[in-house]
Each structure stands twice: as structure tokens, then as C-alpha cells.
Model the fold of this input.
Amino acid sequence: MPLREHDARFAIGLDLLFVDDDRQQVALIRRQDEGQLAMLGEKLRWGEPAATGILRALREELGIERTDWHLHGAGLRSCRLGGLFGLDRPARDPRFLGATSLAARAQVLSLLFLIEADLPQLVRIARPGPTSSVLGLEVLPVAALEQQALFLDHAALIQQVLAAERAGHLPLLPVGSAWPLRRADPEPASDPESPPRRDRSPQQGDSHEHPS
Done:
């Protein structure tokens, strides 16, 4: 089936959340465009694996090269997938939804990666270049994020992912009451003559984010 004008097109964004080992602080970039704090972000290119996109974002935006020695020298220790966002909330990043050109129109899906790091070392090593969209890298307490005007919904995503990690529920995937089919509740023992029980319908307030 060919692509039609009304078919959805997706851009895959990478959001990199730098955290310390006890999850009390995060390192965020200061965006050049709006001057807002945000997770370091980059969009995947055609045919590019996520790991390659992460290394490219570190190199192009923070001046951190891809060699193993330099990654550890920059204080980067580990990386894991935190979740996928935007599949059930198309308008969470509206920048490309209303583009008049079909080539520029896209719904942004975000793969959020949790990167544990020595944050002071990372800030010392990071050197945004002249073509970078980053003004600088800043370390903030997690408890202070609610008082900051972060880019888009980044403050909520950070809190959600850190809470899910504490509960052992990473990665977060967009499943829940918004989906048309749900696993049926177990059938209770009943009289074989009684009519079959209908599956429970989704209730208002059910969570839209569940662990995989």
C-alpha cells in the first residue's frame, strides 16, 4: 500500500537524561533557540541505529568523541532505555505537526535514554561547538525541576522515568486504557447456568503508562 497524504509520518527523537548515581541531580542543556533547559536531544537519521545517534548527539552537541576512553573520561558510565513517549500523545511535541510541507510534517516519538554519569566531570569535558544548538550544560537538583520552565514536557518525563526506575518498571511503554484491546480480568468461578461475564471496560483514570 503506498503512502498517502493523510498517513502518519514519524520522526524519532533521542532524549538523553544525564543523572548522578543516587538520582538526586540531573544535567540539562540550555537550548540556544529558546534559552530553555532541556534534555539533550537529537533526531535519528534514515537507517541510523539508536546507539549511533546517541554517539552523534554527544559529538555534535557536546564535543564528546565516540572512543570508549573519551566516553569514560567524560564521566559517562552507563546507558539504558527509559521509555518511549509520544505514540499515544501526538501533540506533546507540536513543532512539526502543522507543517504545510508534507516533507516537513511529522509526529515526534521520543526514545528517552537514562545515562548515569559523573555530572561535574561531564560539565567540565563538554565543549559545545559553533554549530551546536547547545549554549551550555547545567546541573540541577531533581527536587528543583518543578520550579523550572523546562522545554515542552521534559520536567514531567524526567520525574516519570525516575519514579519508574525506583519501582523497577523501566522501560516505560505507552500501553493502558487508551488502547482498544485490554487483557480480560480472570473469570470468577460461577454457576455453569449463569450467563457469561463481560470483560471490564476501561475506566476513566486508568494509567496510560505501564511497564513492559
Notes: Helices lie at 50-62, 68-73, 119-125, 154-166. Residues 192 and 198 are 15 Å apart (CA to CA).
